[in-house]
Amino acid sequence: VANEGGKHWTVNEVRALIRIWSDKNIQQQLEGTVRNKRIFEEVAARLQKFGIDRDWKQCRTKYKNLKHEYKSVKSAQDSGSTSKSMKFFHELDAILGHCTMEQASKPDNDESERPPEWTEAKSEKDSVG
Description:
Myb_DNA-bind_4; globular; ZSC29 protein
């Protein structure tokens, strides 16, 4: 049932949901569990502070739908198609983009994982001076 979540989400409601979702703490909780009712209850409580009245089920449904839509747009883009797009792609990419990347390859912010060219270039500079 597509309309199970009640009334349609407004742009502002979705923005607020994404803002809460972008909280690192919320992301870590969501990544680590399938039984996430408690997390979405917290999300719904935070939305309440913005004056947005949604229950945890509505939040979870919207989260799943956004995530699904993001993944389908992302995979279409990865295969070279530019025809697919969605409203909050960039916001979601900021949140979800790192999740998919980390699983595919190591995070590239580790000092010890630098390419050898970098360290060589540095030491050449030092010896010239």
